[in-house]
Amino acid sequence: MPSALSVLRNGTYRRLFTAQVVALVGTGLATVALSLLAYDLAGDGAPAVLGTALAIKMIAYVTVAPLVTAVADRVPRRVLMAATDLTRAGAALALPLVTEVWQIHVLIFLLQAASAAFTPAFQATIPEVLPDEQDYTRALSMSRLAYDLESLFSPVLAAALLTVVSYDRLFAGTVVGFLASAALVTATALPRPAPVERTGGIYAKAAFGTRLFRATPRLRALLALDLAVAAGGAVVFVDTVAAVRGHLDRPAGAVSVALGAYGAGSVLTALALPRLLLRSTDRTVMLRAAASLPVVLTAVAVLTATAPGSWSWPALLGAWVAIGAASSAVLTPGGRVVRRSTADADLPAAFAARFSLSHGCWLLTYPLAGWLAPWAGLPLTVAALGAVALAATAAAAVTWPVRDPDRLDHVHPDLPPGHPHLADARPAGGGWLHGHHYVIDQHHHHWPGRDGTHRKTPGRSPQGSLRSPR
Question: Which fold does the domain 198-404 belong to in CATH?
């Protein structure tokens, strides 16, 4: 059985993955440097500066990705990704020169808007480079691994560099990372994307990915699972310091250890998933992982409501490992679900929609984790987020059919005889019956009902394109 690393034998993917890694390292260095810059400019007001920067990041992610995708088909994808890397490098280059807090916010929006354009384009390119499903699964695991290792090692690298250079030099590392990413992308020959045949203006094109999620049951379930992950992740990223420093009264270094436990759980799961997904379906793995989140969060709520003992610290570390593992088991196969549910030409729109909608989930759970804790206390906050995770998982289980085949037999009551799409169809039920790999496109605007019939929405322009066979 090949390991996840075996996918690096593909030269095109290897260069793209390397571009992703160096850009992530640069982003990690910028995160540390930005914290120190905010303290220099705002002193004790630095948390407010960073909190606003985080909110700006999420707003950029939610709003920019669909809009960029709507016009991205006019630009070669390699040019688009390289241009966004250069934009991010320019923003990072300007950050050490700022003298006012508002300038930080403007540059952060520019940098994150470029990231919101780069990431969906990158995600849509990988399944075209790796058409084999097992290779693509390994690539998803490698991507998850890159994110987790960056979160673990970038702070260590930044700390080492800060012993020999001032923090503003860390931004130079960020610039180098983005420039290297741009160079790698530019030097890589990418497959020609399938032609996009959607009609309508920019708004219609931007909304197509969201409509795709709304119309496809398994994609609606995927969004609910993203909300469950955001609920667990918000506890880790927002409330770890309160649990470790406030409740357990442990030293500052223990916060990093707890966050490292979360990353370790995610890394180990990402490495195990390619083999696990050979034996189990995406639905089974993702729902079981999400179902563990409310259980773990309930345990954390009890832990934070109980007087600390010798067992408390190992229990919290175990809970953070479990949350990291469950999150990885949901997030990593998500790309497979999107790919399975989308026409080749619509992959950029689908990945942009998931990028935007999933970060909308974090935009809900981050404030809940941050604002509820000072008012209601940590145990109630964790319990509330556990309830969110439970409701989201239950909604996903109901929405995602247990029997969910790729091929669906369905009736077209709206297409005329002789239409090219009906080449293999036969008359039935007041229309034309046939079956194929079913996705939402210009011939299929709704998921088939139990009788296999779907009807075209009156007055709606055709959008999407027919999925090419794999």
Answer: Growth Hormone; Chain: A; (1.20.1250)
What six digits make up the tokens of 319? 């809970």
Give the torsion sign (CA, 295, 300, 303, 308).
positive
Domain 1-193 has CATH 3.50.50.60: no
Strand partners, 453: 411
Q: Which of 22, 119, 23 is closest to 66 using CA atoms?
A: 119
Place of tokens 């707003």: 59
For the stretch 348-360, pLDDT in tens is 778 878 888 888 8
pTM of the model: 0.78
Q: What residue ranges do the domains of the chain occupy? A: 1-193, 198-404, 405-470
Three-state DSSP class for residue 435: strand
Torsions phi, psi for 446 (to 5 deg): -140, 155
* Contact predicate 210/304, CB 8 Å: no
Rounded-to-integer distance, Cα 310 and Cα 176, Å:
46
Token pair recorded at residue 281: 């379906």
Q: Where are the alpha helices (DSSP H) in 253-346?
A: 253-279, 282-305, 312-340
User: What's 428's DSSP letter?
Assistant: E
Percent of the chain clearing pLDDT 70 (strictly above): 79
Interval 85-105: pLDDT, tens: 999 999 999 988 888 888 888
Q: What is the pLDDT of residues 322-344, one digit of tens each?
A: 999 999 999 999 988 888 888 77
pLDDT per residue as tens digits for the range 384-415 = 999 999 999 999 999 998 886 666 566 767 76
pLDDT of residue 240: 86
Q: What amino acid is encoded at 417 in this protein?
A: P
CB-based contact 384:364 (threshold 8 Å): no
